Amino acid sequence: MLSSLCNQEKQGTGAPGADVGRQKADMIRGTLDMLILKVISLDPMHGWGISERIQSMSDDALLVNQGSLYASLHRLTREGWIRSYWSTTENNRRARYYALTPAGERQLGVEHEHWTRLASAVHGIMSAG
């Protein structure tokens, strides 16, 4: 199942007559979960910060839909892979922060290994012939 991770649409810049269609980043379900686990493995952070970090680390290629982000955060919490707690942001506002649990660290390793195999397989197909 494919779910949209990115709402940003980019226009091509080819010559006249070239394909200048829209590109929309669709990600395999679960990829957002893996990205969230990775981002909060670096530092615990609040939801908006997670979204901003994914955008920044992807050089603005990935813009996370807030509805998808919070659905993933709830799912990851239910699985026991992350925990949440209330803290004060850098702007002196109260926000729910998310941190990786030991089970989440293990799951991140599993997800990373799976992603590496999948990316290699796709690359093999796209490089053929």
Can you walk me through this structure?
The protein is α+β, with helices and mostly antiparallel strands and 129 residues long. It has one domain (31-127): Arc Repressor Mutant, subunit A (Orthogonal Bundle), CATH 1.10.10.10. It contains 4 helices and 5 strands. The protein has helices at 31-42, 47-57, 66-79, 102-127, and strands at residues 2-10, 23-28, 45-46, 82-88, 94-100. The strands form 2 sheets. The protein has a 3-stranded antiparallel sheet with strand order 3-5-4. Helix 1 crosses helix 4. It is globular, with a radius of gyration of 17 Å. The two termini are 27 Å apart.
- Percentage of β-strand residues: 15-25%
Largest sheet, in brief, is: 3 strands, antiparallel
**What is the architecture at the second tier of CATH?**
Orthogonal Bundle
Strand order across the biggest sheet? Answer: 3-5-4
Provide the number of structural domains: 1
Q: In angstroms, what separates the terminal alpha carbons?
A: 27 Å
Highest-level CATH class: Mainly Alpha
The overall pLDDT, averaged over residues, is: 84
CATH topology: Arc Repressor Mutant, subunit A
What is the CATH homologous superfamily assignment? Winged helix-like DNA-binding domain superfamily/Winged helix DNA-binding domain
- Gyration radius (Cα, Å) is 17 Å
The tally of helices reads: 4
Question: Which stretches are poorly predicted, pLDDT < 50 over at least 5 residues?
Answer: 1-25
Q: What would you call the quaternary organization? A: single chain
What gross morphology would you assign?
Answer: globular
The percent of residues in helical segments reads: 40-55%
Structural class: alpha+beta
The succession of helices and strands, N to C, reads: EEHEHHEEH
Count of DSSP strands? 5
